[in-house]
Design brief:
Helices cover 48% and strands 5% of the residues. It is mainly alpha-helical. The chain folds into 2 domains: 1-114, Orthogonal Bundle (DNA polymerase, domain 1); 128-297, Intergrase catalytic core (hpI Integrase, Chain A, Orthogonal Bundle), CATH 1.10.443. The chain has a 3-stranded antiparallel sheet. Helix 7 (143-158) runs antiparallel to helix 9 and helix 7 packs across helix 11 (258-271). The longest helix is centred in the first third of the chain and has 20 residues, at 80-99. The radius of gyration is 23 Å and the shape is globular. The N and C termini lie far apart (61 Å).
Length: 311
């Protein structure tokens, strides 16, 4: 195949996102923008890796192509979860192509995938003291600090995903039955309404008082401080950068990410005897077993036999 790879899915000004009809329909059928973006990137990487430049080349891909790509991802130290996600995207595409009789077989069938640890989430949890340092780190004498405190408060007091913060609108923060709630859009386009505590309510009210955009119900809840009158939301990458900025300021351990706020929220809630069913609903997990994977209490570090050994 061509040594100068081009993506099967490519963009150019004024052109459709996807240039091949069957692939266009396949990608458009997903509801979640996050899924579309992830699957698009996976197919782009796969076709670029093999130098695929047209649909006819894609349709003669076989199992060996998928295995070679998998092995390259392993060699590049991609995580087991990432590799599985990439192969799932290719599998989904070829399943669609087979249904449309545009391909004879799904080349991912029979390809061994790395085993993912389904017993626990590896994301590190941080201590209550470390969370407090994070929440107190922003300089609330400035609008940026007020905004960043609101962002960190949403993450630590709701356990939501970064993408869910990005998609929040002003109308998603309101009073219901005497409680202040945030109404998130979670995976699969589902809604998850969560009553929030007083500290988070105060942080959001302070921010909205400063920005004065509370009456624009269709506007993003969290705005960029650069030209805020444009009312442009922060994307997940920007939110990640904000989190890491304050994590560095308070010297959190390496490996702590915004997802650590989710893991910390779940573990802390369970540690305070909140029913696991309530925690599951709060974070929008479809299955309770997923919530259990986040429960770092199960690790029982304090009971490690290593602490009883002295040489």
């Amino acid at each position: 195949m061509n040594n100068k790879p081009k993506s099967l899915i490519r963009t150019r000004p004024g052109a459709p996102t996807v240039s091949v009809p069957h692939e266009s329909v396949w990608l458009a059928n997903f509801i979640s923008d996050r899924t579309k973006r992830a699957y698009k990137n996976a197919v782009t990487e796969f076709t670029a890796f093999h130098g695929i430049t047209n649909p006819n080349q894609l349709r003669i891909v076989d199992q060996a192509h998928v295995i070679a790509w998998r092995d390259a991802l392993i060699k590049a130290n991609a995580s087991e979860k990432t590799i599985n996600s990439r192969i799932s995207a290719i599998s989904s595409l070829f399943k669609h192509l087979c249904e449309k009789q545009a391909a004879k077989r799904n080349p991912t069938v029979g390809v061994k995938r790395p085993k993912v640890d389904m017993d626990r989430v590896k994301t590190p949890v941080i201590t209550v003291e470390q969370v407090r340092k994070m929440l107190d780190a922003p300089d609330t004498r400035r609008l940026k600090g007020i905004r960043d405190k609101a962002i960190l408060s949403v993450l630590f007091y709701t356990g939501c995903r970064v993408a869910e913060v990005s998609s929040l609108k002003v109308k998603d923060f309101y009073e219901d039955a005497g409680y202040q709630v945030l109404d998130f859009t979670v995976k699969g386009g589902k809604r998850n309404m969560l009553a929030v505590n007083q500290e988070l309510t105060i942080a959001l009210r302070h921010y909205l008082d400063e920005t004065r955009h509370e009456n624009d119900r269709a506007a993003p809840l969290i705005l960029s401080v650069i030209r805020p009158w444009i009312k442009k939301p922060l994307d997940p990458r920007q939110l990640n950068n904000i989190f890491h900025h304050y994590a560095k300021i308070v010297a959190l351990p390496k490996g702590v990410t915004p997802h650590s706020a989710r893991a910390t929220f779940i573990t802390r809630a369970l540690d305070r005897n909140c029913p696991i069913e309530a925690v599951q609903r709060s974070v929008g997990h479809a299955k309770i077993v997923t919530t259990q994977m986040y429960d770092k209490r199960l690790l029982k570090h304090r009971e490690s036999a290593s602490f009883a050994v002295n040489y």
